[in-house]
Amino acid sequence: MVSKIDIGLDAFRKACRPPQRLSPSDYAHDRVAIYEGKSPYYDKHATPWMNEPLDQLANPECTELILLAPTGSGKTTMMEAAMAYIVAEDPGPTLIVGQTNATISEWFETRLMHTFRNTPETKHLIPSGKHRHKARKDAIIFPHMTLFSTGANISGTQARSMRRVLCDEPWTYTLGILRQAEARLHDRHNRQFILISQGGTIGDDWHEKWAQTNQRERHYCCPKCQLEQVYAWANVRYDEIQGDDVATSKTARIVCANADCDFVITEDAELRRSLSMKARYIQTTTGVDGSFGYRFCMLENWHVPLSRLVLERIKAMREVSRGNLELLKSFIQKRLADFWNDEKEDTRPELTGGGYSVADYANGEKWEDEFCRFMTIDRQQDHFWVGVRAWAIDGASRLLWFGKVDTWDRLKVIQEQYGVENRKTQIDCGFQKDEVYKRCAQYGWLALRGDQRDSYPHKNKAGNTIYKGYSRYQNVTASDGKKTMVAFFSNLAIKDTLHQLRNGKGVKWEIPDDIGNEYLQQIDAEVRRGEGRSAIWKPRRRDNHAVDIEAEQVTLASMLGLIGTPDDEPEESQ
Ligand SMILES: [Zn+2]
């Protein structure tokens, strides 16, 4: 016979069921509903790299969970599993921070609500009936906990006190937002700050957070030599098949880090899957107490062919050789889940001197191959940067002098010292234009101006319109009525040519052995960003004057037909 007390206790046990003893990944497996997943419920075997990070939700020692993960590898699904676990098994006020209000509320309304509505353990917790107003498109006031979401902005990340704050893609957040989101935890003893993102840039807030964790990296064990090693791009190999990127990419494989071992991970998805299933995270540094960091990369994900990654890499490296780092940056951040370093990834070769010194030409001496020389000037507020370069008829060139000059009079002295013709002395008129025009009129110099156009129309001898990277000279009048001329050039086209020359990919383009650090720093102060017509050369250091001066030199040499496409006709500069 069952006593009344037993019945009462049974009801009490059902109502106050203790949290299940399952780990979060076991809990989510086959239980938490996933919107548009490979299967309707979370599958811990589809993304084995997610299990240990997910399990940290139940670890009271873990106050920070930092997951550095490639895009398209189950990050969003993992967040949904985590939220279902939190709501059903380990509740507490929670804030989810997304990139913008719009992106986070869309995810919340569609994907996350799907999970809550279709997971048996969370379904009955969603406010309904007279409480239905408590389920909004960006927040739910559950009977036992509150859940808020916001974009990564000041107003959304203020005020409320939370047990958990989960930040999605913090690599996109503006400086300071991450710190503000973390402050919502108010140093609670059971707090968890959860960050999930692709790689960012060394030195940003996201990188700073990752750097202080214990940095657990995903290692696989070589079945042949038993060496445990990270999935590293350095071990990816492929055979170059001239002119056929697709065929090249199909030779992709990963070699063992042990040079004496000949084991190779091939494209075979079954092999890659079995290695991934047995892979594990190994802690690589000590880190701050309670800060658990995890990183894995796309090389482990057998759902994505190695050949696809290699093809992306080949295309990225081709852009790098043109000075455009965007694709490589994206590959490293999104595919390898690593941090980008602007200085490190730019593969331009180190500049070396041409075997002559500045003094060799300091008294106007001619270079033996010289056809003509230009002096180009970059105008600053209260000083100038100047370069004098001599050009040969075949487009080879030799920088004779580079430096900073304080006055107009001194510019004139240098022009005379180096014996540069007036018309071949040209100055940028982007700054203090009227004064530049007046000086040009006074000295017989001409003005130049780089702009955003990518080409300019010209008429060839047959009367047809052709396009070039610079414009014809136009008459301009200064405020004192004096006249001079100005030509425009395409920053993109001319600086692309300069980059080729600087990298030794064109005709000889020399600098003196003793040109000095200032020039060496400045000439590499810009990087190409973006693709196609929207690409730009962007300064990464404030002092980039050597780039402007050399771009003007390239413009003038192109006008004379010394460099550029062979069908360009020489352009008279007057
Ligand atoms: Zn091995």
Oligomeric status: single chain
What is the arithmetic mean of pLDDT? 91
Largest sheet data: 10 strands, mixed
Structural class: alpha/beta
The CATH C-level class name of the largest domain: Alpha Beta
Count of separate DSSP helical elements? 18
> Whole-number radius of gyration?
32 Å
CATH fold title of the largest domain:
Nucleotidyltransferase, domain 5
Amino-to-carboxy terminus distance: 113 Å
Q: Could you explain how this protein is built, in words?
A:
The chain is of the alpha/beta class. It has three domains: 21-211, 3-Layer(aba) Sandwich (Rossmann fold), CATH 3.40.50.300; 216-284 and 297-345, no CATH class; 358-559, Nucleotidyltransferase, domain 5 (2-Layer Sandwich), CATH 3.30.420. Helices cover 30% and strands 21% of the residues. The protein has 18 helices and 25 strands. Strands 1, 2, 3, 4, 5, 6, 7, 8, 12 and 13 form a ten-stranded mixed β-sheet that branches. An eight-stranded mixed β-sheet has the order 21-22-18-17-14-15-16-23. The chain has a three-stranded antiparallel β-sheet with strand order 9-10-11. A hairpin with a 5-residue loop joins strand 21 (474-477) and strand 22. Helix 4 packs across helix 5 and helix 11 (306-321) runs antiparallel to helix 12 (326-335). The longest helix has 18 residues, at 101-118. The termini are far apart. The model is unreliable at 7-16 and 567-574 (pLDDT under 50). Bound molecules: zinc ion.
Attribute tags:
single chain, 574 residues, alpha/beta, Rossmann fold, Nucleotidyltransferase, domain 5, ten-stranded mixed beta sheet, eight-stranded mixed beta sheet, 18 helices, 25 strands, 30% helix, elongated, disordered C terminus, binds zinc ion
